[in-house]
């Protein structure tokens, strides 16, 4: 559509310059494009679209796929948008390139789900100089001047981590293991990503309240199933008495479960190792129903409509809340998961 817009602009420019030529009495004007209704409609429709560049992290998890889908189904031409979508393959340098290309294309809004929190000042300054508002979605950025972005919408990752820790304390207590020494490992997300930083911190807050909980090791599984499996394989080789695995997303948990089974151990509510994840994607419900995963702490990826609401308010000249947290729940095997699953949107 951008090409269409550009070619319409070029066509109009040509018409103007041709008209100028004609009035100047120079060469005979070429026939002007027909003024038919259709042509005008195309031009005004295309011109009315709000162009949004979305610098997406990648496609590393089910959560991310649902997030991409939420943007693609919200920012449609029927809804009045032209979406320029970029998948950075989990690399900050690619996201920076994408943002620069959005600036060059003079989009109306830039939306970023920043892969990590730091290192954005320069490119955000460039967007500011170009007068393009930046909206952050999902993960956060640490910038010295928070005027560099208009608003942020996402999950409260520290709270998610704390909810996970509190759930574990209750679960162990209910099993009569409240004062037992509990050995844990964490498969972290992408190091430096808000979801990793917040979940590690939140769980750490609860860990600090339990002298009998021992965190043996923490390593990044990059939020992917394959890396989660790899990290769990190495944990199982290094430690022979793991009681709990905290996986900072569900996909890492699926990989960890495969590694546990391959090592001849069991997991889930009736197994040797307690496994928990974050996100609450549909596959996590299936894993809990299968008796593999113990619990999942929700993180809602459906940010497309939330970002669209922010843009609509800005278009109307209204103010927007700078920080917008989404409410989130958790799910475990004590719940009626078979009834809940069909209603899950992701
Ligand atoms: O938990 C994970 C994804 O930033 C909240 O990124 C997001 C996280 C989500 O890859 O699955």
Structure description:
The two termini are 29 Å apart. The relative contact order is 0.12. Helix 5 links the parallel strand 3 (109-112) and strand 4 (134-137). This protein is of the alpha/beta class and 346 residues long. Residues 1-45 have low confidence and may be disordered. It contains twelve helices and twelve strands. Strands 2-1-3-4-5-11 form a six-stranded parallel sheet, with helices on both faces. Helices cover 44% and strands 18% of the residues. The longest helix is centred in the first third of the chain and has 22 residues, at 2-23. The protein has two domains: 47-154 and 301-315, Rossmann fold (3-Layer(aba) Sandwich), CATH 3.40.50; 157-299 and 332-343, Rossmann fold (3-Layer(aba) Sandwich). Beta-D-fucofuranose binds at residues 60-61, 63-64, 138-139, 155, 195, 223, 249, 278-279, 299.
For the largest sheet, list the strands in their spatial order.
2-1-3-4-5-11
How would the global form be characterised? elongated
Counting DSSP H or I runs of 4 or more residues, the number of helices is 12
CATH class identity of the largest domain: Alpha Beta
User: Hey, roughly how much beta strand do the residues contain?
Assistant: 15-25%
Tally of distinct domains? 2
β-strand number: 12
Tell me about the largest β-sheet.
6 strands, parallel
Averaged pLDDT:
90
Helix and strand element order: HHEHEHEHEEHEHEHEHEHEHEEH
CATH names the topology of the largest domain as Rossmann fold
> What integer value in Å does the Rg equal?
25 Å
In whole angstroms, the N-to-C terminal distance is 29 Å
* Sheet/helix structural class: alpha/beta
């Amino acid at each position: 559509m951008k090409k269409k817009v550009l070619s319409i602009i070029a066509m109009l420019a040509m018409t103007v310059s041709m008209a100028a030529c004609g009035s100047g009495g120079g060469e005979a004007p070429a026939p002007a494009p027909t003024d038919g209704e259709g042509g005008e409609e195309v031009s005004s429709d295309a011109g009315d679209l709000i162009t949004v560049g979305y610098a997406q992290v990648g496609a590393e998890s089910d959560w991310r796929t649902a997030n991409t889908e939420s943007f693609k189904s919200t920012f449609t031409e029927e809804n009045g948008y032209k979406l320029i979508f970029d998948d950075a393959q989990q690399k900050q340098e690619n996201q920076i390139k994408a943002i620069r290309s959005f600036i060059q294309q003079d989009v109306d809004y830039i939306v970023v789900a920043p892969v990590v929190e730091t290192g954005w000042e320069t490119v955000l300054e460039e967007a500011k100089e170009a007068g393009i508002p930046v909206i952050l979605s999902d993960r956060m950025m640490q910038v010295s001047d928070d005027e560099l972005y208009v608003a942020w919408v996402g999950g409260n990752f520290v709270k998610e981590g704390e909810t996970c820790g509190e759930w574990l304390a209750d679960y162990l207590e209910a099993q009569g293991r409240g004062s037992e020494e509990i050995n844990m490992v964490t498969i972290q997300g992408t190091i430096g990503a808000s979801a990793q930083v917040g979940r590690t911190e939140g769980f750490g807050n609860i860990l600090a309240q339990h002298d009998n909980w021992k965190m043996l090791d923490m390593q990044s599984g990059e939020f992917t199933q394959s890396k989660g499996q790899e990290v769990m394989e190495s944990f199982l080789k290094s430690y022979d008495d793991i009681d709990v695995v905290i996986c900072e997303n569900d996909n890492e948990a699926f990989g960890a479960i495969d590694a546990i089974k391959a090592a001849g151990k069991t997991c889930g509510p009736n197994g040797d190792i307690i496994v928990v994840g974050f996100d609450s994607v549909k596959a996590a419900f299936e894993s809990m129903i299968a008796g593999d995963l113990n619990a999942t702490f929700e993180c809602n990826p459906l940010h497309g409509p939330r970002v669209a609401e922010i843009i609509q308010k800005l278009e109307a000249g209204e103010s927007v809340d700078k920080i917008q947290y989404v409410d989130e729940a958790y799910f475990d095997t004590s719940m009626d998961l078979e009834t809940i699953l069909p209603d899950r949107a992701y």
